[in-house]
Amino acid sequence: MIYLLPAILSIALGVLTLKAILKDRLPGALLVFFLGSTLGLGLSGFLTFTSFILFNKLLTPFVIVCHLGALGYLGMILKKSGHLDFTGLVRSIRRQDILALCAIAALVIPMILFTRLYPYGGWDAWGFWNTKARFLFLGGTNWTGMFDPALWRVQTSYPFLLPLINVWFWSFGTSATYAVPAAMTCIIPFLTAGLLYSLLMEMTKKPWAILAPVWIFTNMFTIQLAASQYSDLLLGLFLLAAVAMFILAQTKQDNAFLILTGLFLGMMAFTKVDGTALAVLTLTAASVFTLCNTPPSTVRRQAMVFLLTAATVAATPLLVFLLAYAPANKHIFTNGLFSPDHPTSVARLTTVLIMSGQEFINLRWSGLWLVLGLMFILARPHQSLRPALRLIPTILGSYFLVCLITYTINTAYPVAWWIDSSFNRIVLALIPTVTLWAFLSHEK
Amino acid sequence: MLLPLRQKILGGLIILLVGVQISQTTLTFSKIWPLKRPTAFIFAGQKFASLAPLLKGQKYAGYYTDTNVDEGRALLELLQAQHILAPLILDPENLDHRYVIINCVNLPRTIEKFKAMGARPVAATPSGILLVERPEFGP
Fold first, then answer.
1. Where are the beta strands (DSSP E) in A148-257?
2. Which residues in B have their CB inside 8 Å of a CB on A?
């Protein structure tokens, strides 16, 4: 029960930050809850990292004071500006919202059952993420031991937002209990499902929006990957939030949403190396579309300032990590273009193309990708490629290209094993965003 | 509210897939639950847990195994040992540390090897994990 406290603090931090950015333009109550919770989790992870940067160890009182200080500051500026009132938002909760929340909560049941069978998660959970969390929580000033070259098998050069979030929750207990990462692996799919539903409801006002998260999270393979305590679905959650905020910025012509886009991109970049690549691609594409789609020039200038400033601020933890802590890890990258011992080849490229293509028709997804493809075929092209949605295919196409190039050029790993063990998780992270795109393609 | 035909088709297809998925998920859980539940908390790293108090204050410990540490079960046990013993850093590439954890198949041969190196035994776990000390690398 003690772990409800950090959850409440994180949610409050996220919701107040949302209110401070959007003021009286908050969307519906459910979207505020899920968006605020997502934002709050990321911000809590960042604030926890601040303790390590400033004091070279975890100082729980400092992290809690940071949270309370941020809440107090946000509350004060909202009260001064007359935007601290949430009664309208609470009154806007409808019976439909409660029912949807119950349905989304029900989707978490198989996740909980899965964690009862695998309480320590999958290989990458006890091998990397939770080991890093233990270094952070138990290491004192030796937390930087997790970057030691002897630990190259623990992916020392990876960013680590999920471990920081777990450490934030552990801070309220007395031990690095397995229960926190196990609970977090149920919370992240809950937030993803809820965010996807509430975004579709906000944008389409159609109750069939509930089909999207139900469809995704009743698939056994998705349940298995989502509940294995990996960072991939957290990456997917931040991507969904960032892309959706960009779409809302374009459709509502409200630059405040671009601040949220930038914040979520920064969080995504600090989640995994894949997230860093995806954040750079998304930010680049979002900047181009903002420049192209936003008249007049004064509004366009403001839009770019909001987007780039928020992204830069949110990317600060990543930049600090890269500049001050991240070690080189020669074990995980071999440039096959120049390596005489492990050269790349056309055969490797062919294998990459075939195996990655096969992933989308693999039966373990229960035809998800085939039906998503059908949705795009049946949608009118001018609907699925309308200006507000063009960001999504742009970042998907460029991201796949980066993945294909990486798999082909980096010959540190046998290609078949590498794709087989990692590409499905890359695909998992993209499912919520692609599903959002597919459903919106059928809306005017 | 009248939906276009294509949306009705897609909606029906998705509902059908949801039904199939719920059935598959229920079936999968009913199969694996009785098999996996009794062994859920069995974690190979636990056999190293009793060494943690003995290694308190140490930053590094060597880790020796006579199988290929980068494959299969050996890699699993190394990573799970690392997880359990964190923030201690296990160093399989360098045994020049004060303490070395030994996790071997052929224990007698390994014991002879470390005796020859001047190591002295510190502890042994019921599951056959040894902790030895190499005083020449001590403080």
1. none
2. 6-7, 9-11, 13-15, 17-18, 20-22, 24-25, 28-29, 32-33, 36-37, 40-41, 43, 45, 59-60, 70, 75-76, 78-80, 82-83, 86-87, 89-94
* B50-85 per-position pLDDT tens digit: 999 999 999 999 999 999 998 899 999 999 999 999
Would you list the domain boundaries of chain A? 4-440
Q: Is residue B52 located within the same domain as residue B26?
A: no
pLDDT in the model for residue B2? 61
| Cα torsion angle, A343, A346, A351, A352, sign | positive
Domain shared by B84 and B16, yes or no: no
Check: CB of residue B80 under 8 Å from CB of residue B45.
yes
Q: Are A118 and A228 in contact (CB under 8 A)?
A: yes
Instruction: Report how far Cα A44 is from the mean position of its chain's Cα atoms.
Output: 14
Helical packing angle, A29-55 and A256-269, nearest 10°: 50
Does one domain contain both B131 and B79?
A: yes
- Assess whether B85 and B50 both reside in one domain: yes
Structure tokens at B90: 């296990």
ipTM over 0.90? The verdict is yes
Spell out which residues of chain B touch residue A378, defining contact as CB-CB under 8 Å: 6, 9-10
Q: Cα dist. A73→A9, A69, A78, A80, A306 in Å?
A: 14, 6, 9, 11, 21
Q: pLDDT tens across A71-106, in order?
A: 999 999 999 998 898 888 888 899 999 999 999 999
If one counts the domains in chain B, the total is: 2
Q: Mark whether B48 and B34 lie in a shared domain.
A: no
Nearest to A104 by CA among A262, A232, A210, A17: A210
Q: Which of B11, B82, B83 sits opposite A208 (nearest CB)?
A: B11
Q: Which domain holds residue B24?
A: 5-39
Same domain, yes or no, for B99 and B127? yes
